[in-house]
Design a protein that fits this description.
By secondary structure, the protein is mostly beta strands. It has 1 helix and 8 strands, in the order H-E-E-E-E-E-E-E-E. The chain has a single domain (3-191), classed as Beta Barrel (Porin).
Length: 192
């Protein structure tokens, strides 16, 4: 991950944490949780050597379980996120988990999170035959939930998503399939 991307993510998290710290927190039940289900779209870059980069798009689904008060702090919880992306030659599944910081501004609940986990890639092609289809994955980002009713909200979220898969080939330089993705998700949130 480049210095510019890391700096941008760090700046986004710092500003979001400052906003969340200044906003009054909503009164949630002690063991409250949110369940998100929606669609997601990822833009990814396959860098097969230093001189060439191919871009692609993948659409799919995303589901998440947000547990509030997991650390006995009003703004800090934990998120478990699963997603699937379907491309022309391959499809990927991810499971991620990590801390989530959230706060409310009017009808909006703003959140940021840092997630780690694993990714599994199915498929491949003659151009990118896979040597490794299971890898470490990480995501950093956030979003906003807009309350529709007491128990329902609409979520719009964005993340920087990174995974690395090793591809094989006949060339002396083995192709390195590096995913530097930006994903956008939207869908319904159920509050329990």
């Amino acid at each position: 991950m480049s210095f510019k991307i890391r700096s941008s993510i760090l700046l986004f998290v710092a500003i979001s944490a400052r906003i969340c710290a200044q906003t009054p927190q909503p009164r949630y039940d002690k063991n409250s949780m949110d369940v998100f289900a929606g669609g997601t779209f990822a833009v990814h870059s396959y860098g097969n050597n230093q001189d060439s980069t191919n871009n692609g798009f993948a659409a799919g689904w995303e589901a998440a379980l947000d547990l509030r008060h997991a650390f006995h702090l009003p703004a800090l919880g934990v998120t478990v996120d699963g997603s699937g992306y379907y491309g022309q030659h391959a499809h990927a599944y991810l499971i991620l988990a990590g801390p989530q910081l959230s706060g409310s501004i009017g009808r909006e609940t703003i959140f940021v999170h840092g997630l780690v986990g694993g990714a599994h890639l199915n498929g491949g092609s003659d151009l990118f035959p896979l040597m490794s289809n299971l890898t470490f994955a990480e995501a950093a980002g956030g979003g906003a939930d807009t309350a529709l009713t007491h128990r329902l909200a609409w979520r719009v979220a964005g993340d920087y998503l990174h995974t690395s898969f090793t591809a094989g080939g006949q060339e002396t330089n083995q192709l390195q399939l590096v995913h530097n993705n930006f994903r956008v998700s939207t869908g319904i949130v159920f509050h329990f």
